[in-house]
Write a structure and sequence with these properties.
The chain has eight helices and twelve strands. It is an alpha/beta fold and about 230 residues long. The protein folds into two domains: about 120 residues, Rossmann fold (3-Layer(aba) Sandwich); about 100 residues, Arc Repressor Mutant, subunit A (Orthogonal Bundle). The chain has a five-stranded parallel β-sheet with strand order 2-1-3-4-5, with helices on both faces. The longest helix is centred in the middle third of the chain and has 15 residues. The two termini are about 30 Å apart. The mean pLDDT is about 90.
């Protein structure tokens, strides 16, 4: 018998915790709750949840600082659920280790979908050397991408960009995170070069580059590879 995945909710709003507890429990998850940053840190360390839902507006601590502290040792998914919705807040949270970001009020169906994506990405140990997305495959070991069994002609940088996004499938990667990983610290802030390479990559991997279904733009924030 498989044990249910455990989710820790760190949120000071009792009504939100109750809504999440009812929604997630009815979908097979085991729930732990914390109403403060301090209690959340303790619960994260003692309950070993499969995923954490974290509010940024906590009564005793800055939620962003709580995120940083948890990320010092916790490797599993963290989903931010907050009334804060500025691009700066979202980017800072993602750059500090959040896997995803939803703003309140939220749709429960979307929340459940985001949770499923995050948990799928976190299971299975090491990433397979071959990633498959429908008719699209990426051979990480041999630096080969195929669509409909045909090898795509990608430059080294295009493949590195594709591999980074695909390995983080379902997760939003910020512009700065991608630039730092692919081009190095000297390119942080140079989003134009990233837009050029994304456009080039879409021409090679998308059925319709003008209506991408694989490489999705998160406006003002970054990109998400959609599985």
């Amino acid at each position: 018998m498989n044990l249910p995945d455990t989710i820790l909710i760190i949120d000071d709003e009792v009504q939100i915790r109750r809504l999440l507890e009812i929604t997630l429990s009815s979908n097979g998850f085991k729930i732990f709750e914390a109403g403060t940053g301090k209690d959340g840190l303790i619960a994260a360390a003692t309950q070993h949840p499969a995923l954490i839902i974290l509010d940024l507006g906590l009564p005793d601590a800055d939620g962003m600082e709580v995120l940083k502290k948890i990320r010092e040792w916790y490797q599993k998914p963290i989903l931010i659920l907050s009334v804060k919705n500025s691009e700066d807040d979202i980017i800072i949270a993602l750059d500090n280790g959040a896997n995803d970001f939803l703003t309140k009020p939220f749709r429960t169906g979307e929340l459940l979908a985001r949770i499923r994506v995050a948990l799928r990405a976190a299971t299975g140990g090491d990433i397979s050397s071959i990633l498959t997305f429908g008719n699209f495959t990426i051979d990480l070991a041999n630096h080969i991408a195929r669509k409909n069994d045909c090898i795509l002609k990608l430059t080294s940088t295009e493949f590195s960009l594709l591999a980074l996004l695909a390995k983080n499938s379902g997760r939003v990667l910020t512009h700065q995170n991608i630039l730092k990983e692919i081009w190095g610290f000297g390119y942080v802030g140079q989003t134009q070069i990233l837009r050029v390479f994304v456009a080039q990559l879409r021409k090679k991997i998308e059925d319709d580059p003008a209506k991408p279904t694989l490489l999705i733009t998160e406006s003002g924030i970054g990109y998400r590879f959609h599985e």
